[in-house]
Amino acid sequence: MITNANSATYDNFADRAAVSADHAIQSTQHALNQALDGLANDVQDLRHQVSPMVDRVSSQTQALARSGIARMRSNTQQLRDSVHNTTDNAKGYIRDEPVKAVLIAAAAGAALVGLLSLLGHGTPRKP
Known about the structure:
mainly alpha; 2 helices
């Protein structure tokens, strides 16, 4: 049978164990909180480091897009000018040399018809 002295010893031991467990829990919680704070700081630092890179890449992408659009506009304008000049030259040639222009157009048309005839000749015709 347990005596009062033994009962007090067990109670004292249980109290110390409970206090020790409580300290261990608090210590673990403190360590976990510190680890989470450190992780949050690391994530914040990483965000601060990555943000300028993302901004720089975004700026470079926008600059490339603007440059591409500008080049496309310039090339389109050059093509328009070239077509306009060619049309003007053709009109001038037709005005200056109408007979030659008609003969050249007829020869080009005949060559095109001949080419199409050769290309279409290889396929069998359906009745």
